[in-house]
Amino acid sequence: MKKVIIVLALLVTTVTFAQNKNAKASLEVDGVxxxxxxxxxxxxxxxxxxxxxxxxxxxxxLKLIFDERKTNLETISKKIVAVGHDTKKLKATDEAxxxxxxxxxxxxxxxxxxxxxxx
Length: 119
What we know:
Blueprint: H1 2-18, E1 23-28, H2 34-45, E2 50-55, E3 61-66, H3 73-82, H4 94-98, H5 109-116
Antiparallel strand pairs: 1-3, 2-3
């Protein structure tokens, strides 16, 4: 019985220490402008455990530093989708998408074209 308890204690300790408090990851998040950037970064950084969130307008890459003991990529993605921006795995609801500013309608080809032209 003592051996079982020791093995379980070691297993729990190993799992606890295996989680990184400064994990780095990136997500692809749809958006087109600096207003999108602000909204995406704010949604990510307001997620408990996220320490840094920087979204690149051109590459659509959101670079994150977060505490795996407090959050995970799925939770962060859900927060971003809730403010109206799609990720590779999750799509924003129509209600959330329609809440973004008209110039941020990244699903609209005309809006994307306008941002490519620098308008």
